[in-house]
Design goal:
The structure is a single chain. With 266 residues, this protein is an alpha/beta fold. 50% of the residues lie in helices and 15% in strands. The strands form two sheets. It has a six-stranded mixed sheet with strand order 1-2-3-4-6-9, sandwiched between helices. The protein has a three-stranded mixed sheet with strand order 5-7-8. The two termini are 25 Å apart.
Length: 266
Amino acid sequence: MPYKYIEVTEENQIATVGLNRVETLNALSYEFATEITEVFRELDAAENVRVIILKSNARIFMAGLDMMDAATRGVSGSKRLLEIPLKDKNLFDCGHAVEECRKPVIAAVHGKCIGAGLDIIAACDFRLCTRDAEFSLREARVGLVADMGVLQRLPFIIGQMYTRQMAYTGRYFSAAEAEKMGLVLDVYPDQESLLDAAGKLAAEIVESAPLAVQSSKEVLNYSRFAPLKDGIALAIHKNMLLLSSEDTKEAFMAFMEKRKPRFKGE
């Protein structure tokens, strides 16, 4: 379906999602967040897509929450304040939609990635960035707490200490610092080489059996909050299903015939 603020292209089973609210540097409005939620749910169901690259078409990756939009949606009074989680549901759901998408998501970050942008990339499977990238959780600088999932997801990516440093200081962290933390997988000199690297990583993932990749993502996500034995039990359950898949049969046949397997996601 067409989107107002997002461009989606697909080639070789790789979908590229371009954040395209360029006039506001991709500041996250409610409408924009709704589109992000919808596009990732749509791609989750798309049989022709195995991997997703998330990039920005603006001068930077994302300028954080759209404060003007938030002000127009503002509420007052205890009862109406308690309605915020429901009233602004898609602001909170866009990160969940990225994380819950069964297809691996690679974030390709250039320039500043602020606030809500960090919330969104924390929900991705991989993060790559350019040398000029900067990351910041700004909420403490405006008297608030980050509430779109970043404080829950980041500790599993960079650990408690670095998460607390980002949350408490609200300062900008360079690409070099982000790489040291483990926030990003690699740093590239420019946007062209960044997108080329994201494409190569996506192509490597496409070579694997898609049902196995998707099941691995589900097990990894589940295992963060589950006892070890429960995580293993889910993995065993997935394998009981995958052993009867056409892709597993194809993998065995390819091994016997000494050729490259041709996976179909069946």
